[in-house]
Each structure stands twice: as C-alpha cells, then as structure tokens.
Amino acid sequence: MRSRHIPPVLSRVTGDGIHTALLLTADGDLLGAYTTKSSPPDLSDEAQVTKEAGNDLDVASISALVAEVTGDYKRAGHELSFLRGPQRTSQPTAYPLKCLLLEMEFGMLGIASTAAFTSSPSRADCYVAAIADSSLHDCPGLLKARISACAGHIGEALLQLAEPP
C-alpha cells in the first residue's frame, strides 16, 4: 500500500458524525490521516492542526496519545489474562485488542487494531483511529463497524507487504 493511498482509504471511515480518521503505528507514529474538518492535515508539515471543541489539536499528538492509551489497555488485558479461570498457567493466552471505543464529553474515539483482523495477528500492530462528534453517542456500532472494516482492509494490505516474495 503506497502512502498516497492511505488518505482515500481512511476517507471511507468518515461521514455520519465521524470527522477524522488516522492510521498510526503501535508506537504512535502517524502514517496517514483524513479529516472532513475545515483544513485537512498536511502530513509533510509538522504544524498539522484540526479544530475540535474550540481547541487546537495536532493529529500527530493525538496519534501518540491514542497509542499510549491503547498500550495501557493491552497491558491491562495481558495482566488480567493471568487471572482467567481455574486453568491458571504461567503463560497467559494472547487476546489481541480488537476494538476500543471511548465515550468522551465532546464526542467519541474509536480505535481498531489492524493485526486483530488479519490471518496473522502476531505481525506488527497498527491502529485505525476515528474521532466522532457527540451525535454518535447513541449508535457507537456505526463507529465500530467502520473502523473495524478499515482496519481489516489495511491489515491485509500490510500483511502482503510483510510476506516474503
């Protein structure tokens, strides 16, 4: 998948209250972004700014925060897998984080793992994140469906790049 193809793929996530979509690595590096806000982010410029709730938000900073929060949830899940059921073992079962929906005061944030929707979840993980306005509080399934579908599509494309010829 070429970098110029990332924003058009992410644009499929937006609409119906979802205004921004990001593709980022598990380390928080921004790989691509698409927004329907007034000024789309320019990935070649470090001053990428999106207006949201009267605050200036930098999509690169958002991607770093998303990766940090997602990493915390994955670590918590890993620790909890040690406590799962009577068959406690020294090796926890790997439960990859598939999707995370966060409801906030001014909207919602949805995060889906690309590795969770591929045939080889052990590959390096990337995330599709989407920011929606508060109109989606009543139907978070729309946000989950869109980011999950996009994560699956991107995950399969990344898997093809990682496979040896």
Please report the total strand number as a whole number.
7
| Low-pLDDT segments | 39-55
How many helix segments?
Answer: 3
- Just name the CATH architecture: 2-Layer Sandwich
Instruction: Assign a percent range to the helix content.
Output: 25-40%
CATH superfamily: Dynein light chain 2a, cytoplasmic
Whole-number count of domains: 1
**How much of the sequence is in beta strands?**
15-25%
Q: Reading side by side through the largest sheet, how are the strands ordered?
A: 2-1-7-6-5
What sort of overall outline do the alpha carbons produce when their principal axes are compared?
A: globular
**What are the secondary-structure elements, in order, as H or E?**
HEEEEHEEEH
Rounded average pLDDT: 78
Q: Output the CATH topology.
A: Beta-Lactamase
Explained architecture:
The protein has 165 residues and is an alpha+beta fold. It has a single domain (3-159), classed as Beta-Lactamase, CATH 3.30.450. The chain contains three helices and seven strands. The chain has a five-stranded antiparallel beta sheet. A hairpin with a 2-residue loop joins strand 3 (50-52) and strand 4 (55-57). The longest helix is centred in the middle third of the chain and has 23 residues, at 59-81. It is globular, with a radius of gyration of 16 Å. The two termini are 16 Å apart. Residues 39-55 have low confidence and may be disordered.
